[in-house]
């Protein structure tokens, strides 16, 4: 009996650790409304870069408060603070 319980416990524990994720997508434009490539977008331990069309996709853990930082050479950093993304 103890072996079965232990087996099911081991089998089900990883399911509880799977966190839901949320996607942040967008397009970064310059002052003239043109797409801005190679912008770095970071959220603490994760990051991405915009493509040639200014598009980005960043996947993060949902339901957590985060700061989103945009940085690009020749521009000042923009920080969006205290974002909470839900699924």
How would you portray this structure in words?
- The protein has 87 residues and is of the alpha+beta class.
- It has a single domain, classed as Carboxypeptidase-like, regulatory domain (Immunoglobulin-like), CATH 2.60.40.
- 18% of the residues lie in helices and 41% in strands.
- It has one helix spanning 2-17; strands at 21-27, 40-43, 46-49, 55-61, 65-71, 78-84.
- The protein has a four-stranded antiparallel beta sheet with strand order 3-2-5-6, with no helix packed on it.
- A hairpin with a 2-residue loop joins strand 2 (40-43) and strand 3.
- The longest helix has 16 residues, at 2-17.
- The model has no long low-confidence stretch (mean pLDDT 81).
What brief labels describe this structure?
single chain, 87 residues, alpha+beta, two-stranded antiparallel ribbon, 41% strand, globular
Task: Assign the CATH class.
Answer: Mainly Beta
Q: How many separate domains make up the residues?
A: 1
Helix content: 10-25%
Could you spell the SSE succession in H and E letters? Answer: HEEEEEE
Biggest beta sheet attributes: 4 strands, antiparallel
Distance between the termini: 39 Å
Q: Provide the CATH topology.
A: Immunoglobulin-like
| Number of β-strand runs | 6
Mean pLDDT: 81
| The CATH superfamily title | Carboxypeptidase-like, regulatory domain
Number of helices: 1
* CATH-level-2 architecture: Sandwich
As laid out across the biggest beta sheet, the strand order is 3-2-5-6
Shape: globular
Oligomer type? single chain
Return Rg in Å: 19 Å
Uncertain ranges: none
Structural class by sheet pairing and helices: alpha+beta
Q: Give the amount of beta strand, in percent.
A: 35-45%
């Amino acid at each position: 009996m103890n072996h079965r319980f232990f087996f099911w416990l081991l089998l089900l524990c990883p399911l509880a650790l799977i966190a839901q994720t949320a996607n942040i997508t967008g397009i970064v434009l310059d002052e003239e409304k043109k797409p801005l490539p190679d912008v770095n977008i970071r959220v603490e331990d994760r990051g991405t870069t915009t493509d040639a069309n200014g598009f980005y996709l960043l996947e993060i853990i949902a339901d957590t408060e985060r700061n989103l930082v945009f940085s690009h050479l020749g521009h000042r950093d923009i920080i969006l603070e205290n974002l909470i993304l839900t699924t």
